[in-house]
Amino acid sequence: MERLITILGPTAVGKTELTLRLAETLSSSVISGDAYQIYRGLSIGTAKPSAEELARVPHHLIDILDPDEPYSAAVFQEQAAAIIRDCTAKGEIPILSGGTGFYVQSLLEQYDFATAEPNESLRQRLDVLVATEGEEALKAYAMSLAAKGRITLRFTDKHRLYRAIELMERGDYAALTTQTKAGLAYEGPVIGLRRPREELYARINLRVDLMVEAGLFEEVEHLLASGVSPHSQAFKGIGYKETLDYFAGKATKEEAVAAIKQNTRRFAKRQITWYKRMPYIEWIDIDAAMTGDDIYEKAMDIVKSYFES
Q1: Where exactly is the site Interaction with substrate tRNA (predicted)?
Q2: Domain of 138, in residue numbers
Q3: What is the average per-residue pLDDT within 2-8?
Q4: Are residues 207 and 285 located together in one domain of the fold?
Q5: Which residues sit in the known binding site for ATP?
Q6: Bridge partners of 191?
Q7: Tally of structural domains, the chain
Q8: Which listed residue, of 27, 47, 97, 176, carries a Cα 20 to 30 Å from 218's Cα?
């Protein structure tokens, strides 16, 4: 089975430096799991790794599209899977680093974008089952379907059981047969970084201030002057849409900066909520006393437990 190390966590938690150190130690490539770092010219507002950081190890899925080109989780999944295959052929264990939860989850769980949309009537029926008989009844029903298809479900969390039941009721057992013990498509740890909320919010506010100092408004002004449409998908990201309001005369610079901070904090909160759907994450809780070395050593211990046992 192909191997993959995943580093995730909310924005500004400290993923980049840990990812770079692990990649240097393991002679690995880094796959960006960010929905906006793919765009050329959008560097400051996306917190894209610096030129020096990009030079430290090979990076993938950064600066691959012009700002007016569309992108999706399905395309990301396909491209990232191809990169993982190439790395595997070279004997590498790539590192996926990302904050776009759906992108990362779709790759790790091998989400089938070719299937129909979620079956809402089925999900309502399952909601009633859980409400009246509990999650154990949901598990029992899922396991009975798996037994009929002569497969083994390796996960028991509600979110993925709903999806698995949808697939099995359609007779699509194949999507569930190639999995790790955690029910994932790749062998390797999924490492999450967490910080106390107030500390995370302070880091977010500081990051936004540094972005502004580094030229965020000038970056957007240059993109607009070069012909990038304010309605392009690239400009839908936090940091860009608020800055566009400033140039459109809808907000002062101070108001735009305050909105970026607020919307980034809200985004981090949504990310944290999203990760609750991913029970296989192994969390590293970072406190004020922990150094970068401490975080790196904890992550390396997790990696070693997967690949040296």
Answers
A1: 100, 123
A2: 120-176
A3: 97
A4: yes
A5: 9-16
A6: 7, 282
A7: 2
A8: 97
